[in-house]
Amino acid sequence: MAGAVDGAASVFSHGASQATSAYCHAVSQSCGQPTVSAKNPNQSYSGAIGKVYTYGESASGASSILNQADKEHPAGSTVGVGKAPADESDARRQALTTSGFVGLACIVAPETGLLHTNHMPHSSSLRVALLKQQAGPSPAAHADEDEETDGLGDLPSSSGSRPMVPPALAPGAFGPLSSDDCFAVALELDIPCDADEKKATMRAYYTPPKGGASTDTTVFVCHHGAGFGALSYALMARALSQQTGGEVGILAYDCRGHGRTKFPPHVVNDMSLGALTGDLMQVIYTLFPDAAQRPSLILVGHSMGGAVVVEAAHALETDPQVRVLGVAMIDIVEGTSLRLLPDMSNIVRQRPEGFVSLESAIQWHIKSRTIRNPMSARRSVPSFVHEARGYATLPWRWNADLLATEPYWHGWFTGLSTKFLCCRAARLLILAETDNLDQTLMIGQMQGKYQLVVSPHAGHCVQEDMPQHTAETLAHFWQRNDRLPAGLRPVGQS
Question: According to the UniProt entry, which residue ranges have a biased composition of type Low complexity (predicted)?
């Protein structure tokens, strides 16, 4: 759940710690995102889209580079600034802010010297071919963004890097960012939702494999946790597509009661495991209706979503026309979750009822340590809330009614560890802390029944806090399990 405090993080959400780095850089946001640059500090690199300025620990090196940036970007331009060196003067910091250097930049990890950037080649032709429509407007940070727009254009109907959070963020650092550089398209999928054949409209975000989905390709299907949304996977999806050369597809969607998905009122609050699992299967069958061209699937679930993808993996085992290569759970363990459930209702009540603005909602998620990566929070949080009418104060309200889901909490997690270990597909568990393993998973790990990856620098939202590392883990998981000669079976697969 978005906003849970530390100590109960393993069930719904987690906190965040601040991290620092020796190397920093400023990014010209006004020109778009930069391309991948080089390792060396104290230099500037021109990219195909933007320009990156980096500097090392010395104040002189920082001043030299930033003075150059001052000249090239006049006051009013938006340029992100990373953490300044310790000996940078307060006057210089203030000058950077007032001269237009606002926002948060990526930070280079000192142990690797690698400069991680956020650019992924965007294929307008693919969007046109897939949707037969024009691409939407370029990314913009609109606090009053309409509920039906997210920077991905008009919607058709289907009928290892460490997250760095500087001690202080400059003004403007909490503005929303578009995710249209993270997914190729946004979709609305109409699926049946009850016995009366009434329809629900699922909001989904999708990047197909290059060349399109087919039996020779693999698509990652991602389910978010309670209180979050599909765009929790935005940065991870972009990184995963980059790291696999576009060979895999990535699909994420807002589940019922969340984000921009719309369900009839009489069923929207049915958050039972069976209902959520049925929705996931309907999304798969709706997006890939032709069994002869249906891609292989890797199901990925964060927190509550982990329980859903495990349940779906078992259900899909009975369908010979669906091939599930693997199941990946992100920071969810049965024993820890059940132990913390008695306190969860009080924790949910401690969240703000609402926010004065969208920027305020983003700021709360960062400062409350719910999401450690500001660049991810600025993309994902706008789908967690909406601007509601009739509220004189705090008009930005939560999309998901978490307290209404309380009757289903035990059902989500009971038996999860055993069901995970019994999946026929390969199994991957990504945790923020190894201390969270319960006895069943400890024994399973010793028996080699699944792959365990620990991301100690992340909070509960591992895929948001460390999108590059999570993408690398999933890419390696896919490579091991999708490219084996006939007759061989991967470790962890029955």
Answer: 152-161
Residue 324 bridge partners (DSSP): 297
Q: Is 28 a catalytic residue?
A: no
Looking at residues 164-177, what average pLDDT do you find? 65
**Catalytic, out of 180, 254, 279, 331:** 331
**331 in active site:** yes
Q: How does strand 218-223 pair with strand 248-253?
A: parallel
Buried b vs exposed e over 359-383: b needs ≥16 C-beta within 10 Å?
Answer: bbbbbbbbebbbbbbbbbbbbbbbb
Catalytic residue among 296, 303, 337, 376: 303
Domains, in order of start, for the chain? 23-108 (no CATH), 124-482 (3.40.50.1820)
Can 144 be counted among the known catalytic residues? no
Coil, strand or helix: which one is 386?
strand
Look up residue 351 and give its two tokens: 């969240």
**Catalytic choice (25, 224, 258, 460):** 460
Alpha-carbon distance 286 to 349, whole Å?
A: 37
Q: pTM higher than 0.70 for the full model?
A: no
The string of pLDDT tens digits covering residues 7-16 is 344 344 433 2
